[in-house]
Amino acid sequence: MVQQVDYRLTGGQVLNVFNQEFEEKDVWIKDKKIIFVGDNQDLEAKTTIDCHDRWLVPGFIDAHLHIESSLLTPSEFGRLSLENGVTRIFADPHEIASVAGISGIQYMLDSAKKTPLHIHYMLPSSVPATPFEHAGAILDADALRPFYQHPEIAGLAEVMDFPAVANAQDDMLQKIADAKEAHRHVDGHGAGLGLAQLAIYRAYGIDTDHEATSKKEALDRVNAGMAVFLREGTVERDELSLLPAVTKANEGHFAFATDDKSAADIQKEGSINFNIALAIENGLTPELAYTLASYNGATAHHLQNVGALAPGFEADLVILTDPKQVTIDQVMVGGQFFQNEQEDVLRLPGQQINLTFSKADLALPLDASKPAHVIEIEPHHITTKHQVEMVPVDADRQFAPNETFAKVAVIERYHDLGHGLGIIKGLSLKDGAIASTIAHDSHNLIVAGVNDDDMVLAVETLKKIGGGQVVVKNGQVTTLPLPIGGLMSDLPYEGLIQKQQTLNEAFAKISPLTFDPFLTLSFMALPVIPSLKITDQGLFDFAQFAFIQIQD
Question: Sign of torsion, CA 191 197 202 204?
């Protein structure tokens, strides 16, 4: 008896991820599944698609990211991702959870229903990330546990509070135990961790990491039994440093991730498709690169029947005209070809910015005879250098910003609890100020500048518009409003990218930087990443895991 199916894709070169070869075969699809690969006289398709001179690969998987870093809602992020062949993502809604707590997580779940992109959420493990900053919410194990009833929840997201694990802190261990009880897994966040520390993570069943930045660090994680995500985002450009770690013997331990990537960069260069092209350009075979981008991402997250073009697997695939250039012809997700249709954006009510800030708060008296502790930006990295340098001081014994050294402040924006103030090097500001309500991980308001009046105006502007990003030059203001929690735009991605371009043009008038200043600035407030950072509570030294004064 002949069985009718939805699609027959015929004549294409089909990637077999199990033997890493392209084979000319037919792919038969019914509902959301692949039911057969090859010749089959017992099947009849409603629609036959000629794929001669085409290559078929599994849909791309982003193994770890934060949707909010794109400044898009999940539905708009889905539209942009699918255009780039990404059919499945594993997202940590840590950012909106830090702002809005459980209502933020529920918002992300609801918005995900408006896109065909498969969105798996990993519950944020550390809200707040550490005791060294104030967030908009506190999420303990009891608050997170009910979310495991949602099938979209794939596990516990990047455990970044290593001391809580090492010291067997009750609530952190309960979060890990709850994930396992729900038959989910736990992601790691091993920035700066050595072998002994990784062993502690593994003892608690943490089995992935995306923070390796060198071949040695990647191999340390593989040898500990972890899956390693080769990260290539807007700021975190780590893939080229990590690719030498991938060998035929260990390739099953590697997958791709973007972590944090702006919508503009995704539109310009791609998402995981960019990771693939970069890997192929630097020596990986196309067969291996596409396997890392699909099947390996699925297995790292313990998914069954995902990431391969084989019977019983999900019908997520990409049709290519050029596999080496990752040139995309069509994308299928859930057994249907993607149609780029825009959905209405959901709102997140009740988010307000609550802070008090004035020019007096920027006063920074220094001893001109002593060096100061300075945060130095490392371009294309979220880490910083901890410098101790002589900095300019004026006749009133106040720090005097210039093109080398700027002021930076993080202002608590939820409960008006004050601010931390420091010195930053590497923004190359000739004038003015920039500010944002995106400041990882608690997303307080961060502002940097060389003009106090412009810094204050930047803060006041963000408070007035309910969050976003702003450039100020001599009182002239350019804004990118982010009304959803101060993190995400309510615009379609095309409109957001246009606004970003206008903002970047304004920034170019006050600095010659070529890398993303706002995403870079956002990580200056992340104390769980080396080396010197700033939170609303002050200047934080990762090496000491403690606050320090600007001058000793």
Answer: negative
For residues 240 and 183, what is the distance between their CA atoms, to the nearest angstrom? 34
Is the distance from CB of 222 to CB of 249 less than 8 angstroms?
no
- The rounded distance, in Å, linking the Cα atoms of 189 and 300 is 15
Helix axes 195-203, 215-223, angle to 10 degrees: 40
Q: Specify the pLDDT at position 331.
A: 98
- Candidates 150, 172, 174; CA nearest to 163 is 172
Please give the Cα distance from 415 to 536 (Å, whole number). 12
Q: 544 CB contacts (<8 Å, ≥6 apart)?
A: none
Q: Residue 481 is encoded by which pair of tokens?
A: 């409003």
Nearest to 14 by CA among 278, 338, 337, 311: 311
Please give the structure tokens belonging to residue 494: 């095309």
Residues 6+ apart with CB under 8 A from 513: 427, 428, 507
Beta bridge partners of 408: 422, 448
- Predicted local confidence at residue 277, as pLDDT: 98
CA angle 63, 64, 67 (to 5 degrees): 125
The number of residues in the chain equals: 552
Q: Residue 143, exposed/middle/buried by CB under 10 A (0-12, 13-18, 19+)?
A: middle
* Per-residue model confidence (pLDDT) at position 131: 84
Largest CA distance in the chain: 93
The alpha carbon dihedral of 463, 422, 433, 258 has a sign of negative
How many whole angstroms separate alpha carbon 90 and alpha carbon 93?
Answer: 10
| 3-class DSSP string for 137-188 | CCECHHHHHHHHHCCCEEEEEEECCHHHHHCCCHHHHHHHHHHHHCCCEEEE
- Orientation angle between helical segments 102-112 and 74-83, nearest 10 degrees: 40
pLDDT tens profile 446-463: 999 999 999 999 999 999
Q: Give the DSSP H/E element, type plus range, for residue 332.
A: strand 327-333
User: Is the overall model pTM greater than 0.90, yes or no?
Assistant: yes
